[in-house]
């Protein structure tokens, strides 16, 4: 007796999307291929991610399958979409808020214990919008992690310091990194989690509180204490430490490297930073002085705030900028030439000149990226030309222009991260130590 | 010579004092001091599917030096499994398991995944263990480390193995049977007991009915892995499962059970009804052959791993009652350790002729995966018999066979260790059964056969129209 069944004989098989590896660290490259498409078919590859704030982000690229019905993102070129050309990671770094989203969004992972989940789909035809209504031919799911297995996350609340420590698996001891973000404040962990996934004990330090109830009155001693907390950790190699800062965190890095009697790192990394700020003053006074320059702030045609000019022209008087000639360790400067938030290119040029005069220019390496903006972050993160920002000192919410164009900014993030890691390995892991050679 | 040794000793003492007082130490002329190096061990990816290759590399190690690379993990039952291999770092102080050859330990030669397939129960653990994942929604966590020197597992104090200070770098990896997005669906439908694994996305997908052997229970990991490759896969229980009623030690389901299971796949709205395959291992092969020839269903292809064409249990028809597994012990054989081999139970010459599957009715391609050192099933003889019978009716073109020297019975997904023998039962007495297979040759078989299995399923489930 033939049973009454609903068969799917007339339905053709769905294409197969494979993502390899399906679970990767955020700085690991993945290979996305689609098979079993009709040959020579127009298709759109689409990525979708829902952020921790519940906003949706998407990216897409237009492709044509080959005669075998295959699309391989590592080899084939996107003909249009949020990225163009042969871009294996394009579906990740070109993510943008879906149409209708709240303005000024920025994608940042706050809970690093969980991955970023991205859905990769393939659609028939070359479509540019309405993805949520368009039925996908196939979907794959991939996880992007900031933390490798075995990395430990430890809250640090001691000696007045507030931060999070990330420790690689194994006994150690490991080199240590003091990791500082910028004027946005708060406790941002993802870069430290990633550094620990590469073999460094990394302390993500909060020094500007976004919590009004918790006013951190931050002096130089705060950073020196944080450095010592890191240095004294039983799994940290005391003589293999680095400072890494972005934006205002770079200014802190340069100040400490130049003036602190306690902080003596093996090397420093300064991303999108400047040496221009009051020296030997508390952070409070620094920001006060900064506010005085506020009239120099401009806005663009969208009313996005441009702070670029605030430190221009680069001052010549001492006391107004860090004397980088005093720095005794290698420094890696990373900057985007389209940085609209901080005059980092001019600052780098001035730093170079100061170090030339002081005779320590050989310590300086500058990575300067045309078309990149201020927020140079771990690779394959989306680019934000502008986003919401709260100016703590003025208690004002604006949309800040960071600058950069997406493709060159993505390149800057990918290239600088490799070079930052190489720099850290060179100075913290591969130090000129010698092996014992017995003369027998 | 004596004086330079004294100098060496003095320098070492000075160095020691310098280190503990935190000062920089000055090098003696002709001798350089040894500061602690900071080696690094990396694995890529750190979260991998079971069948994905992991690249393990060490750097910043002492150049041209002996090192041991070790893997350690705990099974779900808490047993410690371990493997280790001896290498020499190159002139730059690096080791790369894709490039370098192990000169001893759990495996030798250039074996990128050797640490994983050569895992063995650590000394002191229980006897007769087999590594199998029950919960496929969590990964195996494996600790990889590199240690100075060529160290054997037994060095160091008691069960602690190697001393901690010899470990110079470590990394941890996760190994998964399930990729993200795969859905695990428990099936208790029309009397059928199993677990369905659906790939992410709308489908429709090809389907696989996944059958294991007389170990019983419900084994999910191969199906989870199939689904991670885009195939909807149904792991079926049919023996010794709490949700299948009937007396213990008997197969209490009939032919109709398997037909219903196959149709559950066919009728699923996300599965293409004319693209369903059947995969069986061990006794699951007998069931696979039956499904393909006697149950009025039409799989697109079937895969048989080390299993028989016939069975002592004249069974599963609607009227009959199957015998128990323990009934034909005259065919059990024992080695010098009193471990049992079931091999002769499945030898075609021992099975009543009427108990053979009517393989002549086969209408779809068949891939037979054969371990030549199978001590649990007479796989070689059964494969020969299948081929012979198909040839006799002009159906040779349906028969594909891959034969692996030195491989045993349990040819499973790759980069997992083979158990040459394992605990079969503890009642009435403890009995260890022989599966066969030499570790390295079995690993080759698993890696190669898995590629062929996926390729065969791809060919007949996706590509053919």
TrEMBL record, chain A:
Superkingdom: Eukaryota
GO biological process entries: acyl-CoA metabolic process; fatty acid metabolic process
Molecular function, one GO term: fatty acyl-CoA hydrolase activity
Active site: 247 (charge relay system), 339 (charge relay system), 374 (charge relay system)
Domain Acyl-CoA thioester hydrolase/bile acid-CoA amino acid N-acetyltransferase: 27-158
Pfam families found in the cross-reference section: BAAT_C, Bile_Hydr_Trans
PANTHER family per UniProt: ACYL-COA THIOESTERASE 17-RELATED (PTHR10824:SF36), ACYL-COENZYME A THIOESTERASE-RELATED (PTHR10824)
Entry protein name: Peroxisomal succinyl-coenzyme A thioesterase-like
Protein source organism: Chanos chanos
Automatic annotation (TrEMBL), chain B:
Pfam families tied to this protein: BAAT_C (PF08840), Bile_Hydr_Trans (PF04775)
GO biological process: acyl-CoA metabolic process; fatty acid metabolic process
Domain Acyl-CoA thioester hydrolase/bile acid-CoA amino acid N-acetyltransferase as annotated: residue spans: 51-189
Active site, per annotation: 282 (charge relay system), 374 (charge relay system), 409 (charge relay system)
Domain of life: Eukaryota
The BAAT/Acyl-CoA thioester hydrolase C-terminal domain, residue ranges: 256-461
GO MF, one annotated term: fatty acyl-CoA hydrolase activity
Family: Belongs to the C/M/P thioester hydrolase family.
Name of the protein in its database record: Bile acid-CoA:amino acid N-acyltransferase isoform X2
Organism: Chanos chanos (Milkfish)
Name of the coding gene: LOC115813818
């Amino acid at each position: 007796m033939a049973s009454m069944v609903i068969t799917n004989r007339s339905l053709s098989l769905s294409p197969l999307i494979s993502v390899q590896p399906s679970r990767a660290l955020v700085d690991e490259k993945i290979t996305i291929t689609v098979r079993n498409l009709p040959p020579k078919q127009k298709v759109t590859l689409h990525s979708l991610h829902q952020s921790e704030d519940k906003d949706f982000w998407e990216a897409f690229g237009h492709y044509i399958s080959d005669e075998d019905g295959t699309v391989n993102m590592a080899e084939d070129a996107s003909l249009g979409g949020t990225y163009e050309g042969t871009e294996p990671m394009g579906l990740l770094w070109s993510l943008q808020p879906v149409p209708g989203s709240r303005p000024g969004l920025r994608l940042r992972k706050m809970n690093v214990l969980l991955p970023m989940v991205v859905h990769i789909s393939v659609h028939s035809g070359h479509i540019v919008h309405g993805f949520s209504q368009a039925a996908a031919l196939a979907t794959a799911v991939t996880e992007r992690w900031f933390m490798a297995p075995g990395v430990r996350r430890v809250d640090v609340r001691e000696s007045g310091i507030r931060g999070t420590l990330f420790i690689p698996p194994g006994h150690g001891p490991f080199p240590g990194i003091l990791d500082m973000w910028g004027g946005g404040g708060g406790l941002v962990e993802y870069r430290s989690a990633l550094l620990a996934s590469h073999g460094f004990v990394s302390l993500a330090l909060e020094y500007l509180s976004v919590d009004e109830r918790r006013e951190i009155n931050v002096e130089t001693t705060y950073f020196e204490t944080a450095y010592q907390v890191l240095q004294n950790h039983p799994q940290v190699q005391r003589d293999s430490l680095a400072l890494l800062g972005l934006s205002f965190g770079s200014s802190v890095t340069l100040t400490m490297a130049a003036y602190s009697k306690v902080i003596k790192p093996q090397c420093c990394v300064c991303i999108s930073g400047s040496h221009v700020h009051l020296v030997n003053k508390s952070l409070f006074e620094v920001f006060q002085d900064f506010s005085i320059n506020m009239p120099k702030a401009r806005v663009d045609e969208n009313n996005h705030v441009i702070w670029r000019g605030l430190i221009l022209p680069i001052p010549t008087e001492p006391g107004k900028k860090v004397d980088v000639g005093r720095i005794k360790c290698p420094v890696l400067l990373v900057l985007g030439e389209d940085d609209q938030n901080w005059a980092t290119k001019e600052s780098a040029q001035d730093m170079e000149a100061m170090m030339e005069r002081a005779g320590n220019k050989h310590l300086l390496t500058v990575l300067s990226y045309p078309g990149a903006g201020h927020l140079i972050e771990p690779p394959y993160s989306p680019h934000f030309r502008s986003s919401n920002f709260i100016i703590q000192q003025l208690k004002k919410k604006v949309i800040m222009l960071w600058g950069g164009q997406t493709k060159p900014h993505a390149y800057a993030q990918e290239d600088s991260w490799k070079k930052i890691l190489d720099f850290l390995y060179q100075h913290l892991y591969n130090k000129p130590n010698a092996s014992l050679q017995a003369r027998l | 010579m004596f004086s330079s040794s004294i100098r060496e000793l003095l320098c070492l003492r000075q160095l020691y004092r310098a280190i503990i007082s935190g000062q920089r130490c000055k090098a003696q002329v002709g001798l350089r001091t040894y500061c602690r190096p900071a080696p690094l061990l990396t694995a890529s990816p750190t979260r991998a599917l079971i069948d994905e290759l992991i690249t393990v590399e060490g750097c910043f190690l002492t150049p041209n030096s002996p090192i041991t690379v070790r893997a350690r993990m705990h099974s779900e039952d808490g047993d410690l499994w371990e493997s280790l291999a001896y290498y020499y770092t190159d002139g730059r102080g690096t080791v790369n398991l894709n490039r370098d050859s192990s000169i001893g330990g759990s495996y030798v030669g250039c074996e990128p995944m050797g640490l994983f397939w050569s895992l063995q129960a650590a000394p002191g653990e229980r006897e007769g263990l087999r590594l199998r994942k029950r919960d496929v929604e969590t990964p195996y966590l494996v600790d990889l480390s590199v240690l100075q020197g060529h160290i054997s597992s037994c060095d160091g104090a008691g069960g602690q193995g190697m001393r901690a200070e010899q470990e110079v770098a470590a990394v941890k990896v996760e190994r998964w049977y399930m990729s993200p997005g795969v859905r695990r669906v428990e099936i208790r439908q029309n009397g059928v007991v199993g677990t369905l694994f659906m790939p992410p996305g709308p489908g429709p997908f090809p389907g696989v009915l996944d059958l294991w052997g007389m170990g019983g229970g419900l084994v999910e990991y191969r199906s989870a892995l199939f689904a991670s490759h885009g195939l909807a896969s149904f792991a079926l229980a049919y023996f010794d499962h709490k949700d299948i009623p009937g007396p213990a030690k008997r197969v209490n389901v009939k032919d109709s059970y398997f037909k219903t299971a196959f149709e559950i796949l066919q009728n699923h709205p996300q599965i293409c009804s004319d693209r369903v395959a059947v995969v069986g291992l061990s006794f699951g092969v007998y069931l696979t052959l039956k499904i393909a020839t006697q149950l009025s269903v039409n799989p697109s292809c079937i895969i048989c791993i080390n299993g028989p064409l016939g069975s002592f249990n004249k069974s599963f028809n609607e009227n009959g009652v199957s015998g128990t597994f323990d009934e034909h012990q005259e065919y059990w054989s024992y080695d010098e350790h009193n471990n049992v081999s079931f091999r002769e139970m499945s030898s075609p010459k021992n099975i009543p002729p009427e108990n053979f599957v009517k393989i002549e009715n086969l209408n779809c391609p068949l891939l037979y995966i054969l371990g030549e050192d199978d001590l649990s099933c007479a796989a070689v003889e059964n494969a020969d018999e299948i081929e012979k019978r198909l040839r006799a009716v002009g159906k040779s073109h349906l028969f594909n066979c891959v034969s692996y020297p030195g491989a045993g019975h349990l040819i499973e997904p790759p980069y997992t260790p083979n158990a040459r023998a394992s605990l079969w039962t503890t009642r009435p007495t403890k009995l260890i059964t022989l599966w066969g297979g030499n570790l390295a040759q079995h690993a080759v078989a698993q890696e190669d056969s898995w590629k062929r299995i996926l390729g065969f399923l791809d060919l007949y489930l996706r590509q053919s129209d």
